[in-house]
Design a protein that fits this description.
- About 80% of the residues lie in helices and about 0% in strands.
- By secondary structure, it is mainly α.
- The radius of gyration is 64 Å and the shape is rod-shaped.
- The model has no long low-confidence stretch (mean pLDDT about 75).
Length: about 270
């Protein structure tokens, strides 16, 4: 009985537990919930074993009770049969056998009364055991409901914790590659690329300026050489030929004597 009371007390304590309050007070809610799930699972197993044992004892007590009730009815039947036999012998005038069967009827009635008293004593114990079984079953059902609630809470909190952790990692990663941050790696790499592009553009402009200057110098040298050549030709008495021939724009005009135009005579 003490063990049953202990199981009942533990069931009552666990079923009254405020899960939300326990979570709020816990430093590590997940570990606390895991421990509660283990405690509830172990206590449910203990409660099931206690219920099974109590139900077994109740069934045995009920069987004994039913046997005593049957015995009570049997002693009543025997008392009635003995009384009837006594009446038959007394009708025949056989008082000896009549008294004998009346005595047997009394013995059966005493047995019946004893059995009846025993049955009355057994009834409260059976009712108490039945009440205990009902309480254990109700407490077990509540514990199973609490266990389901605990598992749902734990799974929900674990999922939320993982989601929050993933979000923190994403935010941390985004912060580390902020392109607007001049200190970020991407910004520094972009600045390096821009400097390289500017350097290449500057080198191209310098190269183009150098080529133009070289070609200008080459043209100047050519002009000086041409002037010197023509001067030498003049000194030698040879007029230098023109480098460009005129284009034929109008038909060539023959060299004929000039005749003054005279208007025709009027008739």
């Amino acid at each position: 009985m003490a063990e049953k009371q202990t199981i009942l007390g533990r069931i009552a304590q666990l079923t009254k537990a405020n899960i939300n309050a326990l979570i709020d007070r816990a430093e590590d809610p997940q570990k606390m919930l895991d421990q509660l799930v283990r405690d509830y699972t172990n206590n449910i197993a203990d409660a099931e074993q206690a219920i099974a044992q109590t139900i077994g004892n109740l069934r045995m007590a009920q069987q004994d009770y039913n046997s005593d009730v049957q015995a009570l009815q049997d002693w009543g039947s025997k008392a009635q049969a003995a009384s009837q036999m006594a009446d038959q012998y007394r009708t025949k005038g056989d008082t000896v056998n009549a008294d004998k069967f009346d005595a047997l009827a009394k013995v059966a009635l005493r047995k019946q009364m004893d059995t009846e008293a025993q049955v009355k004593q057994e009834q409260p114990s059976i009712d108490s055991q039945q009440q205990t079984v009902d309480q254990l079953k109700d407490g077990l059902a509540q514990m199973k409901d609490k266990l389901t609630e605990l598992k749902d809470k734990r799974d929900s909190l674990v999922a939320r914790a993982k989601t929050a952790q993933a979000q923190q990692q994403v935010q941390s990663s985004l912060a580390s590659i902020n392109v607007l941050d001049p200190t970020s790696e991407i910004s520094r790499f972009e600045d390096s690329v821009r400097r390289q592009e500017a350097m290449a553009q500057g080198q191209a402009e310098v190269a183009a300026t150098s080529f133009d200057s070289q070609f200008a110098q080459l043209n100047a040298v050519s002009d000086d050489a041409e002037v010197d050549a023509r001067l030498a030709a003049l000194k030698a008495g040879n007029a230098p030929a023109a480098a460009v021939e005129p284009a034929a724009v109008t038909p060539a005009i023959e060299s004929t004597p000039y005749t003054q135009y005279a208007p025709p005579a009027q008739s």
